[in-house]
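If you are new to this repository, start here. Below is one unmodified record pulled from the training split, so you can see the exact layout before writing a loader.
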Amino acid sequence: MKKIIRMGILLVSSIVYSQVGINTEHPKSTLTVNGSYAGNYKSVAVDTNLTITDQFVNVAAGTTSSITVTLPDAVVADVLKDSFYGRVYYIKNTSSFDVTIKGNGAQLLQTGPTSVSNIIVLKSGQGVTVVKNSNNSISTALWDIFQQTSATNDNTFVVGGIKSFRAVVPANLFTANGGGTRKIMTGKAVGNTSTTDRRSAHDLCNAADQAKFIYINGLRMDFLESWYDTNTSPKLFNANAAAITYNISSLSTNDRYIDGANTNIAAGHYSFYIDGNDDFGTNIDQAEYVNAMLTFPSGEWYNCTWHATRDAINYYFYFTAQRLN
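And here is the target side for that same chain:
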């Protein structure tokens, strides 16, 4: 009888005050849980459609190719009865392949203040939190990307996110030239191309360090040996399969660069100038840097820094990038 009375009091209390506590007599929120919390967990290795029963989803290491995780249909006929605003999915990619998170049909995800997309891509090691927002129209974003982690310095930037990396390259190898032909831009037009045998920082790093280089919308921050022996040239490398248009202007230790509007870079090529004279003094007693504003026609912009120094044994290349919108 006492148990029934206590349960009745709890029900009345929860109805009157709309606050429920578990392991606490004084809940200060709508639901207060003084203890652990468990949500449904599952591991998938094939294309998957998420449902009302899912919450924590791990894309398993056993997958043999990239897969797609599709979110539920987020447009409902009766908003009062059927909407599920605030539903949360936590998705982690522990496979060795890309994972695509996709809206149902053509439904959109809000990835930034002004950025929407039908898909986002999780690289190996990345995770994401996806939350259903209060929209109910196919013409608006229906899901919000609250947090997306970055396991490596790939194309994925959260707004305000900063990435940095230091590459250490043996001086005798960097200044030796050779080692194959590299494609390089000789001007801002996509057809202004040539080749060079100058070595790049990326070329001379091991696979583990190569994975840490910073990519911005397909452009890798890098260094080539300068046209002036032993010096260095800050560069972007187009790792995409198509040409990329960008704008860049910079402040430099010795020579600013202000003529970078409407710059094009062909696929697989190193960029035209970032620094005003394309040459960092990087002898043993010299060090230089350049701070550049990098923007894209999409409206994204980034603050980037290249810095280079050396000693008798190694070159030291420092890269930072921050997405500003």
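Two things worth knowing about this chain: The radius of gyration is 26 Å. The chain has a mean pLDDT of 88.
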